[in-house]
Amino acid sequence: MTDVLAPLINWFYTVFVAQLDAWVVLGFVAQACFTMRFVVQWIASERAKRSVVPVAFWFFSLFGGTLLFIYAIQRQDPVFIAGQGMGLIIYVRNLWLIAAERKAAMADTN
């Protein structure tokens, strides 16, 4: 049985322990921030009993996506760089639209 598990244990050690450095820690922090956007969205939707995308979702997306983008650049992963780079454009645009909508709503009330 140990002959079967040894390669798997070695792989886990290599991936999760041997290469652990500050960049990997940053990657995990970034992924945690990025994941929080789903938690925030889920809680907001459950409270409203409908699908809701709160502003915090877009801020977590922007923060986590930026950290993941930096991490991807350091790791030189072209697929990850392209994916996170495109996402950042979308997150900034959504925050821009929200800000413009709020500004227009404030102007309407005055």
From TrEMBL:
What molecular function terms (GO) are annotated for this protein? Answer: lipid-A-disaccharide synthase activity
Pfam family of this protein, just one?
LAB_N
- The superkingdom listed in its UniProt entry is Bacteria
What GO terms in the biological process aspect are recorded for it?
Answer: lipid A biosynthetic process
All copies of the Lipid A biosynthesis N-terminal domain together span 26-97
InterPro entries of this UniProt entry? Lipid_A_biosynth_N (IPR011499), UCP028440_lipidA_biosyn (IPR014546)
Sorted alphabetically, which keywords does the UniProt record give? Answer: Membrane, Transmembrane, Transmembrane helix
Its transmembrane ranges are 52-73, 79-99
> Among the entry's GO cellular component annotations, what is one?
membrane
> What is the protein name given in its UniProt record?
Lipid-A-disaccharide synthase N-terminal domain-containing protein
Protein species of origin: Flavimaribacter sediminis
